[in-house]
Design brief:
Blueprint lengths: L14 H9 L14 H14 L6 H4 L10 H9 L2
Helix pairs in contact: 1-2
C-alpha cells in the first residue's frame, strides 16, 4: 500500500523562502512547522492568515492545529477528509 504523501517534496525550506512563496501566493497544501523558536512559526502563521483566505472564507475553510494540543492521528484524519 502506498502512502498518499509519498510524492510530496522532501525539501526543507528556509524561513525566507516560505515567506516569499506565501507573499507570491505559491502555497503548499499543508504547512508543518516545528522547532524551539515560536517567533518564526508565529510570523509564518500570521503571513498565511493575511494572504490565503478572505476573512469571510475563514470559518469554513481554515483549520489551525497545534502539535502541543492535537495528536498526529488527528492531523492525518483532518488532512485526509479535506
Amino acid at each position: 500500500m502506498h502512502s498518499p504523501f509519498e510524492n510530496m517534496a522532501k525539501k526543507e525550506y528556509t524561513y525566507e523562502e516560505i515567506c516569499r512563496n506565501i507573499v507570491a501566493k505559491k502555497f503548499a497544501p499543508v504547512y508543518i512547522m516545528m522547532g524551539d523558536e515560536p517567533f518564526f512559526m508565529d510570523q509564518i502563521t500570521d503571513l498565511l492568515l493575511e494572504n490565503v483566505l478572505e476573512e469571510s472564507e475563514r470559518d469554513f475553510n481554515q483549520i489551525i492545529m497545534y502539535g502541543a494540543i492535537n495528536s498526529f492521528c488527528q492531523l492525518i484524519l483532518i488532512v485526509l477528509h479535506q
